[in-house]
Amino acid sequence: MMNNLLDIQNLTVTYENNVVLDNINHSIKNGESYSVIGKNGAGKSTFLKSIVGLLPITSGKILFNGIDITNNPIYKRIDLGISYLSQNNNIFPRLTVKEHFELVKYKDEGILEELIPEILKFKKSYAGNLSGGEQRLL
């Protein structure tokens, strides 16, 4: 039996005693693509952030390739290839690209080159001078 890539089981997330997601169940098979669509305030970001580990869940389980990651910290989920890219370019315009990576302790340029080789040519540039696409890479 082949495991799903992602299994969301009875996921409930609350903010300040308000239920935002209530008993969500969903599975994604390997190779499938999905979009999360809905009105503002419908819980799209909450759903995605809870999978990545940016928000605590109230109850339920998150399985990735059959492994329970519900209580895994963010860095362990990133190691599995799970990440979240927000709609906003949250950068510090007056810091260089290199300084941004130093903030998150990515000083090993070998790792940087492997992850995002396109951004290395800008490491001395100020983030505010990058194009919108380059800022998203950052």
What does this 3D model show about the protein?
The protein is of the alpha+beta class and 138 residues long. 28% of the residues lie in helices and 21% in strands. It is built from 6 helices and 4 strands; from the N terminus they run ββαββααααα. It has a 4-stranded antiparallel sheet, covered by helices on one side. The longest helix has 9 residues, at 44-52. The radius of gyration is 18 Å and the shape is globular. The model has no long low-confidence stretch (mean pLDDT 84).
Question: Major sheet: order of its strands?
Answer: 2-1-3-4
Series of H and E elements? EEHEEHHHHH
Let me know the largest β-sheet: 4 strands, antiparallel
SS strand fraction: 15-25%
Q: What is the rounded Rg?
A: 18 Å
Structural class designation? alpha+beta
How far apart the termini lie comes to 39 Å
- Described by the principal axes of the CA atoms, the overall outline is globular
Residues in helix, %: 25-40%
Number of helical stretches of at least 4 residues: 6
Chain-averaged pLDDT: 84
- Total number of beta strands: 4
Low-confidence stretches: none
List keywords for this structure.
138 residues; alpha+beta; 4 strands
Put the structure in a nutshell.
With 138 residues, the protein is α+β, with helices and mostly antiparallel strands. The chain is built from six helices and four strands, in the order E-E-H-E-E-H-H-H-H-H.
